[in-house]
Amino acid sequence: MSEAAPSWRDRLLSDAPRSRREAKLGQLYRGWLQFRRNRLALLGLVIVVALVLVAAFAPWIATHHPYEQNLAQRLLPPGSQGHWLGTDEFGRDIFSRIVYGARITLYIVVLVALIAAPIGLLVGTAAGYLGGWVDAVLMRITDVFLAFPSLILALAFVAALGPGIENAVIAIALTSWPPYARIARAETLTIRNSDYIAAARLQGAGTGRILARHVMPLCLSSLTVRVTLDMAGIILTAAGLGFLGLGAQPPLAEWGAMVSSGRRYILDQWWVATIPGLAIFVVSLAFNLLGDGLRDVMDPRGKK
Amino acid sequence: MGGPAISVRDLFVTFGKGADAVRAVRGVSFDVAEGESFGLVGESGSGKSTVLRALAGLNRDWTGAASIAGLDVATRDARLPRIAQMVFQDPYASLHPRHTVDRVLSEPLEIHGIAEVDRRVTQALEDVGLGPAFRFRYPNQLSGGQRQRVAIARALMLQPRVLLLDEPTSALDVSVQAEILNLLKRLRATQRLTMILVSHNLAVVAHMCDRLAVMSRGIVVEEMDVATLRREEPKVPYTRQLLLASKGYDRAVAARMTNED
Amino acid sequence: MSALLEVEDLRVTFQTPTGPFRAVRGVSFALGRERLGIVGESGSGKSLTGRAIMRLLPANARLEAKRLAFDGVDLLTASSRTLRGIRGARISLVLQDPKYSLNPVMTVGEQIAEAARIHGGIGAAAARRKALEMIAAVRIRDPERVYRLYPHEVSGGMGQRIMIAMMLVPEPDLLIADEPTSALDVTVQMQVLAILDDLVRERGMGLIFISHDLDLVASFCDRVLVMYAGRVVEQVAARDLASATHPYTQGLLKSLPRIGDDRAELPTLSRDPAWLEG
Asked: Which of B196, B201, B204 is nearest to B165 (CA)?
């Protein structure tokens, strides 16, 4: 055992990796060693991983069905009769609803990231690299989107498309890509005139190839950091839409909607609104801590 | 082949427009013969690197005529990458920070659909004096000299006939500079390269080149063969001043320097 | 003989995740009112030695020395107040790139005048006169015009002269110049060196000139320390540098291309591990 452990570690930290894959893994491992030193970021990672696990194994973790009503047991306080976190106004188990709510939160966050980040990356790098009128047009469009307060714009979208979780995702994605485009463009502007891009051009690489293989990988790290930091905002916007009744519709166990429906009982039965609120708070904080840690590791400006 | 490998005629390069326009190169002409090593010497702002970048095709805003191996540089002929390649000054800035050496060297092969990537990459590393152990390293795992070797290997992947060198050793320590200069000299002989070497260092040019042009403020003030330089017999006062200044500090010489501010 | 600066067994150690890194390992020298050159390649510890004298080191660096004294004042035990009084006022530091050392939103003249006000305790008008005088002293032709320029409006050579003017305002006894002319063209470099040269001669200032350029140091300085891997491997009078005995110094000199010679290959340096302890 004590023989095997140092050997893979040595190989990862070796100065002479034997394949591209090994080089990549070695790089990742060094990043991890650096990341690991940041306690708070590690805490963030643990919470995010826990969120993913809870979402994946929701049916096994939940003690009750999230939508099962039991009017005889409505508004029970935490800790009573097998309801760890109490029940809501329909007698549904709050713990189980939080567990299933993790799925919705994750669904929203991942979907928004998958839509917004690539749009931002594409628009930003193309604008930054091509310059000229392409840059002018793309960035003015970006400015138009940036000029709207995102929650209001999302509200308008949802109002037009109808409430529902898919539309909420589309609305949030449409309002969250402009900052990514800005970041990607700024990054691209500094990369564009570098010697390694000049070298790629001299080798005959086309614009598409340079963008995809040389420029985008360099924008990816700062974008990843920013998206992670924005996760908290996305969760809050989704919760906000849910709270306003424009996101997830009943009986879906979305955390924002749960806060919204619990607010009527806030004075007498505080837990109905507070517990989903706490869940939102903890997960947002975790994404922020994780993003901070990632920034320390991935942002090239932080290095040396 | 016949005819010069590289020909530059009445090259003018202007940066910016209107009142802010800077005329960086003002009518430069020279020829470089097949297999020759030609030096472009000058101080910063003399336009020497600008000439090289225009020739490489990295700058398009120029007028005049420039051709490499008979191909007009202005046409962006698709054959040019396989004829002329360039090595940059700063090895810390000329390698992609997220690409392994292997990726850096195989990229040009992939672009041009050249087979036997594995063998060629190994061979290229060997040619520049780096062993196979370096193949999967990232630039941040290499020293400055090793990076410059990788940059030279990259420039040679497409087996060009012309190598454009922009101050290839000015960012390196002197002992490493000697290694890189030796390597370039050896490669020039074995691969029969035509070279243009841009440098502010007269000694480096004297060591590497057959012929040189001295540039100042966008024009060539003097062209000479390297024997003239070695005998220290330049005709133009500017070149003589450059020569004196490059020989170390001398209070009397400093007093005679013409101030250009 | 009373030395201006005494350095004995100077050590700088960095704490890194992989253990301590000893960047400067026991450097000793004494400096009078002369031009002392420190040469070495990157990583030799020459710049750190200069900064250690100013006690300007990064937070993760540890400084040790048997003795580090400037004009009789022990710099190791001096209070930060005493140090502030010495730094800038009696020891000045000129770095390679003036662009990073000048404030971009103040004209260069104002910056020099400010330095004069702080160090000299003089009024605005007197400070302005002093600044103009200093600008003229570094041989800038039209001081009145240059006074009003912003750092981005001046060339590299002019910027470096302005930096030197600013450092000279308090009339320091010791100037530490770290590659002050490496970013400059040879002709401008000569002019800047001539200014430093005159200051040493006329004001009796001590100068530590840190550079990678052996020829330059040999021709400009009185005495040269050759550093390798954090240690001084050789100390030699500048005019005797060509006949230096240490194989490292010899190797460096031989590996330089020269205008007159026609060697086909340059001898490269093979580093002997024994030099590390050497």
From this structure: B196
- Of the pLDDT bands very low, low, confident and very high (cuts 50, 70, 90), residue A2 is very low
Among B181, B201, B261, select the one facing C155 at the smallest CB separation: B261
- Residue C111: pLDDT above 70? yes
Q: How many helices and strands, by DSSP H and E, does chain C display?
A: 9, 11
* Least confident residue range of A7-16, A58-67, C165-174, C254-263: A7-16
Residue A108 placed within a domain: yes
DSSP state of B46: S
Q: Is B60 touching A (CB cutoff 8 A)? A: no
Interchain CB distance below 8 Å, B107 and A213:
yes
Q: Looking at the domain assignment, is residue A143 inside a domain?
A: yes
- B86:A23 CB<8 A: no
pLDDT(B25) > 90: yes
Region of C91 on the Ramachandran plot (φ > 0 left; ψ -120 to 50 alpha; else beta) = beta
Within a domain: A21:
no
Q: What is the mean pLDDT of residues A75-100?
A: 85
- Give me the residue label for tokens 């450059």: B242
Closest CA to B176 of B196, B146, B132: B146
* Chain B contact present for C140, CB below 8 A: yes
Using a CB-CB cut-off of 8 Å, the residues of chain A touching B167 are: none
Average pLDDT over residues A18-29: 84
> pLDDT tens-digit profile of C114-164?
888 888 788 889 999 989 988 887 878 888 998 999 988 887 778 888 888
- Higher per-residue pLDDT: A292 or B209: B209
Which chains sit next to A, with 3 or more Cβ pairs under 8 A? B
**Per-residue pLDDT tens digits for B105-121:** 999 999 999 999 999 99
Which chains have 3+ CB pairs within 8 A of C? B
Total-model pTM: 0.87
Q: Which of C254, C214, C180 shows the shortest CA–CA distance to C44? A: C214
C185·B207 Cβ contact <8 A: no
Provide the number of structural domains found in chain A: 1
CA distances from B13 to A34, B46, B62, B197 (A): 47, 12, 5, 19
Residue A34: exposed, middle, or buried by beta-carbon count in 10 A (0-12, 13-18, 19+)? middle
d(CA A187, CA A191): 6
pLDDT for the residue B145: 92
Of B85, B97, B136, the CB nearest to A20: B136
> In what order do the strands lie in the sheet containing B62-68?
B22-32, B6-15, B62-68, B71-72
Q: What is the pLDDT of residues A130-159, one digit of tens each?
A: 999 999 999 999 999 888 777 787 788 888
Mean pLDDT over the full length of chain A: 86
CB–CB contact B107 A200 (8 Å): yes
- The alpha carbon of residue C226 is apart from the nearest alpha carbon of chain B, in Å, by 14
Structural domain boundaries enclosing A54: 43-302
Could you count the other beta carbons within 10 Å of the beta carbon of residue C105? 8
Could you tell me the CATH number of the domain that includes residue A84?
1.10.3720.10
Of the candidates B45, B158, B183, B149, the one whose C-alpha atom is nearest the C-alpha of residue B108 is B158
**Which of chain C's residues have a Cβ under 8 Å away from the Cβ of B177?**
255, 257
Q: What whole-number distance in Å separates Cα of residue A11 and Cα of residue A299? A: 25
Please name the residues in contact with C262: beta carbons below 8 A apart, sequence gap of 6 or more: B230
Residue of B nearest to A206 (CA): B111
- Residue, of B72 and C121, whose pLDDT is higher: B72
Tell me if A20 is assigned to some domain. no
Instruction: Output the six-digit token pair for C150.
Output: 């912003």
ipTM, two decimals, is 0.90
A297 vs A32: CA distance, rounded Å: 8
Instruction: Write out chain B residues lying below 8 Å of C260, CB-based.
Output: 206, 230, 232
Q: Which residue has the higher pLDDT, B4 or B212?
A: B212
On whether any CB of chain B is under 8 Å from the CB of C276, the answer is: no
